[in-house]
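Quick start: read one record
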Amino acid sequence: MLQASSASWNGGDLDGFLDDYWRSDELTFSGADGVTRGWDQVRDRYLRTYWAPGASRDSLRFQEVEVTPLGSEHALALGRFVLYRPQEGDSVTASGYFSLVLRRTPEGWRIIHDHTSS
Protein backbone atom coordinates (compact mmCIF):
# COMPACT_ATOMS: atom_id res chain seq x y z
CA MET A 1 0.00 0.00 0.00
CA LEU A 2 2.71 2.50 1.00
CA GLN A 3 4.96 1.46 -1.90
CA ALA A 4 2.14 2.21 -4.35
CA SER A 5 1.51 5.49 -2.54
CA SER A 6 5.13 6.64 -2.86
CA ALA A 7 5.25 5.50 -6.51
CA SER A 8 2.21 7.70 -7.24
CA TRP A 9 3.77 10.62 -5.36
CA ASN A 10 7.05 10.23 -7.22
CA GLY A 11 5.15 10.03 -10.52
CA GLY A 12 3.35 13.32 -9.81
CA ASP A 13 -0.03 11.60 -9.38
CA LEU A 14 -1.75 13.23 -6.40
CA ASP A 15 -5.01 11.32 -6.82
CA GLY A 16 -3.06 8.05 -7.02
CA PHE A 17 -1.24 9.03 -3.83
CA LEU A 18 -4.60 9.72 -2.15
CA ASP A 19 -6.23 6.46 -3.35
CA ASP A 20 -5.52 4.80 -0.02
CA TYR A 21 -7.28 7.53 1.97
CA TRP A 22 -10.90 6.96 2.97
CA ARG A 23 -13.11 9.07 0.71
CA SER A 24 -15.22 10.37 3.54
CA ASP A 25 -15.96 13.60 5.36
CA GLU A 26 -14.88 11.66 8.47
CA LEU A 27 -11.26 11.21 7.30
CA THR A 28 -8.85 13.13 9.57
CA PHE A 29 -5.29 14.32 9.04
CA SER A 30 -3.30 15.76 11.94
CA GLY A 31 -0.14 17.73 11.31
CA ALA A 32 1.74 20.85 12.30
CA ASP A 33 -1.13 23.04 11.04
CA GLY A 34 -3.77 21.25 13.12
CA VAL A 35 -6.50 18.83 12.08
CA THR A 36 -7.90 18.65 8.56
CA ARG A 37 -11.23 16.86 8.21
CA GLY A 38 -12.61 15.25 5.07
CA TRP A 39 -11.05 13.73 1.94
CA ASP A 40 -11.65 16.83 -0.19
CA GLN A 41 -10.03 19.06 2.43
CA VAL A 42 -7.02 16.72 2.75
CA ARG A 43 -6.64 16.82 -1.04
CA ASP A 44 -6.89 20.62 -0.98
CA ARG A 45 -4.18 20.70 1.71
CA TYR A 46 -1.79 18.82 -0.60
CA LEU A 47 -2.75 21.08 -3.53
CA ARG A 48 -1.89 24.17 -1.45
CA THR A 49 1.46 22.80 -0.33
CA TYR A 50 3.34 20.18 -2.34
CA TRP A 51 1.28 20.57 -5.52
CA ALA A 52 1.13 24.38 -5.47
CA PRO A 53 2.36 26.05 -8.66
CA GLY A 54 6.11 26.50 -8.40
CA ALA A 55 6.41 24.33 -5.29
CA SER A 56 9.28 21.88 -5.10
CA ARG A 57 7.94 18.37 -4.64
CA ASP A 58 10.77 16.04 -3.71
CA SER A 59 10.68 12.26 -4.05
CA LEU A 60 9.12 10.23 -1.24
CA ARG A 61 10.06 6.98 0.44
CA PHE A 62 8.87 5.26 3.60
CA GLN A 63 11.15 3.61 6.15
CA GLU A 64 10.87 1.80 9.47
CA VAL A 65 7.28 0.75 8.74
CA GLU A 66 5.56 -1.35 11.42
CA VAL A 67 2.00 -2.57 11.11
CA THR A 68 0.04 -3.82 14.11
CA PRO A 69 -3.38 -5.43 13.61
CA LEU A 70 -6.12 -3.99 15.83
CA GLY A 71 -8.62 -6.78 15.32
CA SER A 72 -9.74 -8.04 11.93
CA GLU A 73 -11.00 -4.71 10.57
CA HIS A 74 -8.38 -2.17 11.73
CA ALA A 75 -4.63 -1.76 11.89
CA LEU A 76 -2.08 0.77 13.07
CA ALA A 77 0.86 1.61 10.80
CA LEU A 78 3.87 3.50 12.17
CA GLY A 79 6.84 4.65 10.17
CA ARG A 80 9.08 7.38 8.88
CA PHE A 81 8.66 9.38 5.68
CA VAL A 82 11.66 10.77 3.84
CA LEU A 83 11.57 13.45 1.16
CA TYR A 84 14.71 13.45 -0.95
CA ARG A 85 16.21 14.66 -4.22
CA PRO A 86 17.49 11.85 -6.46
CA GLN A 87 19.08 14.39 -8.81
CA GLU A 88 21.24 15.58 -5.90
CA GLY A 89 22.56 12.21 -4.73
CA ASP A 90 19.41 11.40 -2.72
CA SER A 91 19.97 14.36 -0.40
CA VAL A 92 17.24 14.44 2.25
CA THR A 93 15.15 17.61 2.33
CA ALA A 94 12.66 16.59 5.04
CA SER A 95 11.70 13.63 7.16
CA GLY A 96 9.43 12.80 10.01
CA TYR A 97 7.22 10.18 11.53
CA PHE A 98 3.66 9.12 10.85
CA SER A 99 0.96 6.98 12.35
CA LEU A 100 -1.93 5.75 10.25
CA VAL A 101 -5.14 4.19 11.45
CA LEU A 102 -6.34 1.80 8.75
CA ARG A 103 -9.78 0.28 8.24
CA ARG A 104 -10.68 -2.67 6.02
CA THR A 105 -13.43 -1.59 3.61
CA PRO A 106 -15.09 -3.34 0.65
CA GLU A 107 -12.59 -1.44 -1.56
CA GLY A 108 -9.60 -2.63 0.51
CA TRP A 109 -7.58 -1.10 3.35
CA ARG A 110 -8.08 2.65 3.71
CA ILE A 111 -6.41 5.30 5.85
CA ILE A 112 -9.05 6.78 8.16
CA HIS A 113 -6.61 8.89 10.20
CA ASP A 114 -3.12 10.16 9.37
CA HIS A 115 -0.92 11.88 11.94
CA THR A 116 2.30 13.12 10.37
CA SER A 117 4.96 15.27 11.95
CA SER A 118 8.28 16.56 10.63
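Residues 2-117 form a domain with the Nuclear Transport Factor 2; Chain: A, fold (CATH 3.10.450.50).
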